[in-house]
Amino acid sequence: MGLKDIKTNENIIERMIRSVRNGSISHAYLLEGDRSIDKLGLAENFAKAILCKEGDGDGCDCCTTCRKISHGNHEDVIYLEADGSSIKDEAIEELQGRIRKKPYDGDRNIVIVKDADTMTLRAQNRLLKTLEEPSPGTVIILLSENIENLVQTILSRCVVFKLNTFIPQEYKNVLEGAILIAGMLLEGRPFYEMSGKLSEFTASRELAHELLDAMETWYRDLAVYRYDSNSQLILYQDRIDEIRDKSRLCPFGHVEKAVAALEEARSDLNRNLNTGYTLKNMVLKISS
């Protein structure tokens, strides 16, 4: 898979490909989007495009470089992620030591920072020094769900791409469940009719968070549709007919109540409350 195989965020994909072709690659990028978006997959495909010697602005997906990136074991692609709940200063310091070294295989080091918005303030300030004086050939790609958690000085030194939702196969079941539960809530169904579907998302906090993200995006589209006559701002474009029909039946007060309950549930999950209890409480609050 290469950048051209990604069927949404076409403008961003085209900018990435053009920058590789023109040799105008920035030293730092920030990809922002919710949990359902495969930001890591996009970052890795961009890394292929940058490092591949065979493609024309995109990865060929056949050479040794592309295959190594696909398998997550390319020597010059460095991954950094949260240790526990945050990325700490020490991790950035270790990263700085690594990218001062020459690349092993080519002429670039690519750094992919998952959960970038969990960096502590000290870690962000340390990373800022690297962004201000980047090592030659290094490209840093930050992945974030909420850029408001990042200091402005970091944002100003990155090319920021705001991603619309594109759904990997593994998220399709989550989306289907989110739409079904939201529809049952809108119809005023009793809780016992929803409990079976809801229980499918209680196995882990990660899965519960994915459900909350999908439901919140769905409610957002229902609200936006009323004011977006051309449907250009709708994120779930492949569901536009269903969004149109549900939007007509959905009072704005219901959307407000649902979003407030979803945010409260997200906070409860972050405080390690029981997943099943949290989702049940959310549904009861929306339906009250």
UniProtKB/TrEMBL annotation:
It comes from the Bacteria. This is Uncharacterized protein. It comes from Anoxybacterium hadale.
